[in-house]
Design a protein that fits this description.
single chain, 247 residues, mainly alpha, 0% strand, globular
Length: 247
């Protein structure tokens, strides 16, 4: 049974993660995992992401009319990624969670560093036909093992040269499909228990409140300044998780 203090920590974490998502359009999984993996455990933290991850990305996935364009461009990535999520969860179920937590820390450090440099990858062009499914495989394993799709999935999608609205919708479609598969994979490995499922449902309330609040304040502060603070904090959290796991 969860203690009152632990439930309060989980709900506050998803309030903060929802606020970040509302402000910058993404960030729910990395914020939640960075704050909960070292206290609750990585497997449990990933399981808690399932319900809010599905519900909060439905709107993002269905908004806009670029479904055909997106699916024509990344359908191989989505298909392969969904297949490899199960493999990632299989590895997670049989591995030392300290190692997986350390890997997540490394991924957060890489993604934060990439985002802080403002680097822009060139579109893959002629490489895209074979690179897209390869990125799908790596992304699926990473998502199943660590609950994070930032490296390499999000970075690759950003490199495709999609316009802003199409990119946001493509992220929503990708997150939604892979989170559904993640939930089924966790259930298949008996890692998404009824107790975790109930707590995951409860996180919807603070996550949605945080997201709506973040959306209201999005235009009242400098988004660039917030992004810098956010990624520096994520970099510090990732470094802490990696050092704690490996040292």
């Amino acid at each position: 049974m969860w203690s009152t203090e632990l439930v309060a920590l989980v709900l506050f974490t998803f309030l903060l993660a929802g606020l970040v998502k509302g402000l910058v359009g993404f960030g729910l999984p990395p914020v939640a995992l960075a704050l909960l993996a070292t206290t609750l455990g990585l497997k449990e933290a990933i399981a808690l992401l399932v319900i809010p991850g599905i519900v909060m990305n439905i709107w993002q996935a269905v908004s806009g009319g670029a479904h055909k364009v997106i699916l024509a461009r990344i359908w191989t990535m989505l298909l392969v990624a969904c297949a490899f999520v199960w493999l990632g969860v299989e590895i997670l179920a049989g591995t030392d969670t300290r190692l997986a937590s350390g890997l997540l820390g490394v991924l957060l450090v890489l993604y934060s560093t990439y985002s802080l440099t403002g680097a822009q990858l060139s579109p893959p062009r002629s490489w895209e036909i074979w690179l897209t499914p390869l990125i799908g495989a790596l992304s699926g394993i990473a998502y199943g093992l660590t609950g994070s799709l930032m490296v390499p999935g999000v970075i690759y999608l950003q490199s495709l040269g999609l316009d802003r609205n199409t990119l946001v919708q493509s992220l929503g479609i990708t997150f939604l499909l892979m989170t559904v598969v993640l939930g089924l994979s966790l259930l298949g490995h008996s890692m998404l228990t009824a107790e975790l499922g109930l707590l995951s449902v409860l996180t919807l309330v603070p996550a949605v409140i945080g997201m709506l609040t973040g959306q209201r304040f999005r235009h009242r502060i400098s988004e660039e300044m917030f992004r810098k603070f956010f990624f520096w904090a994520l970099l510090a959290a990732g470094a802490y998780m990696a050092l704690r796991a490996f040292l």
